Write a sequence for this structure.
């Protein structure tokens, strides 16, 4: 992934992450790149030395935030915290505990924890309702 410093025709500066320069150009031409502050689609790259991530294991997603996005992010953080405060952390046994609850083998209760992609796919295939909780940078140890 390549991080570009961008600016719009109203002189707002922000960042965006793209797979390549061609990816940026394609998205810009199709109207998918816009300023998070004013919504202008007249966006250009600013002069910079791009930061290139060579890791193929995990892609990072960046969000350039205007005031509205900051408000939404704060609300999402608050909701995530409330979910965690009112549920039991079952750690890496999430898929196992979710199945037990779904099939009535243990008491119904709110839980959260970690699951691999394969475990999550299996839960979905079994018709077990769940949703991912966001992990914010300040939550990581």
């Amino acid at each position: 992934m390549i991080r570009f410093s961008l600016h719009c025709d109203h002189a707002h500066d922000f960042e965006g992450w793209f797979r390549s320069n061609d990816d940026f150009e394609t998205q810009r031409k199709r109207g998918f790149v816009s300023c998070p502050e004013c919504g202008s689609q007249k966006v250009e790259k600013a002069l910079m030395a791009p930061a290139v991530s060579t890791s193929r294991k995990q892609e990072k997603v960046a969000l350039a935030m205007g005031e509205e996005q900051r408000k939404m992010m704060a609300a999402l953080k608050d909701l995530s915290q409330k979910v965690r405060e009112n549920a039991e952390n079952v750690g890496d046994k999430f898929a196992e505990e979710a199945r037990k609850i779904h099939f009535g083998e243990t008491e119904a209760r709110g839980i959260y924890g970690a699951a691999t992609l394969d475990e999550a796919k299996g839960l979905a295939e079994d018709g077990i309702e769940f949703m991912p909780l966001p992990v914010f940078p300040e939550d990581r140890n």
Q: What stands out?
A: Helices lie at 21-29, 67-85, 94-102, 117-125. The chain has a mean pLDDT of 83.
